[in-house]
Amino acid sequence: xxxxxxxxxxxxxxxxxxxxxxxxxxxxxxxxxxxxxxxxxxxxxxxxxxxxxxxxxxxxxxxxxxxxxxxxxxxxxxxxxxxxxxxxxxxxxxxxxxxxxxxxxxxxxxxxxxxxxxxxxxxxxxxxxxxxxxxxxxxxxxxxxxxxxxxxxxxxxxxxxxxxxxxxxxxxxxxxxxxxxxxxxxxxxxxxxxxxxxxxxxxxxxxxxxxxxxxxxxxxxxxxxxxxxxxxxxxxxxxxxxxxxxxxxxxxxxxxxxxxxxxxxxxxxxxxxxxxxxxxxxxxxxxxxxxxxxxxxxxxxxxxxxxxxxxxxxxxxxxxxxxxxxxxxxxxxxxxxxxxxxxxxxxxxxxxxxxxxxxxxxxxxxxxxxxxxxxxxxxxxx
Length: 382
Prior knowledge:
Elements: E1 6-12, E2 15-22, E3 26-33, E4 41-44, E5 54-57, H1 58-80, H2 88-95, H3 101-136, H4 148-162, H5 168-187, H6 196-218, H7 222-233, H8 241-260, H9 262-268, H10 272-277, H11 282-304, H12 310-321, H13 329-349, H14 358-374
Antiparallel strand pairs: 1-2, 2-3, 4-5
Helix pairs in contact: 1-3, 1-13, 2-3, 3-8, 3-11, 3-12, 3-13, 4-5, 4-6, 4-7, 4-11, 5-6, 5-11, 6-7, 8-11, 12-13, 13-14
Family: Belongs to the binding-protein-dependent transport system permease family. FecCD subfamily.
Transmembrane segments: 61-81, 112-132, 144-165, 171-191, 198-222, 242-262, 289-314, 326-346, 358-375
Subcellular location: Cell membrane
């Protein structure tokens, strides 16, 4: 008796499998028919034998690779330029533990720790910025503009003025950032994290915390105020090694978490009804994204102070280079690190031997950028 074949087709990560079954005999035939990847994508892993593959957006790969190369060149320039100019080849040898002892000391002990701090803080500020902008669906909703930076700064300055524990600024900055976020979210009740009410509430909260910071500095001795002053403008000079290490761990974990939330970030750019229809729990995702953004901002402020404009410039560069299909998490992080490295390099070298704090340099760059965004309200949404 000829068996009756039942054929079923199903898709498994872009590959079509044809299955033929015979009653009582199990699977009789299995054949995979590869499907071409969508236009603008590469497929990776389709021949590994497990039937699963990963789609890589071609433009995202090129943009991320290009930003990584530019960041590497900027780091070499950062280590080479300064009061004493070094040959890039000598810098590479010093990084490998070779070459002149004085060059090695200057590169590894003086400039490299500050470069690491610049990369980590820039990446953290920009990553927090693009998370907050996506959450609020507004390009203006960066941690600096909605008051999180000022809240973290006020608590960090309070720790410098009132205690002498090296890790206290990190813990206090985290507390201040969380406090500012909770107050802003509470004042914007009814609109959530969307709309201009959230931004206006954040601006007000930031102004209050800024005034508290100035009041604390005005009521202490001049030497104490001078010690706390870099926290108010943003500086990478003589940062605590413990705070930098803590930021490195936090940024690594936060970056992985952002990649895990990448699909949700893309969907959250649409309405809540659309996101819910696609299986996203909008309430839980918003809380997760808000907590992640607050933590990254607090850790970055604990190292560099309120360099808030990086959270605006980095995501803008990433969006300008990327396609609108996805939220450019990787590109924003790399762009933020690049902006911070170049800004601190300019602050060290433009008026040498006088040093400009990195926060002042980024404010000079970011101020006109913010005005440009405000002049184009139709493109103000993330």
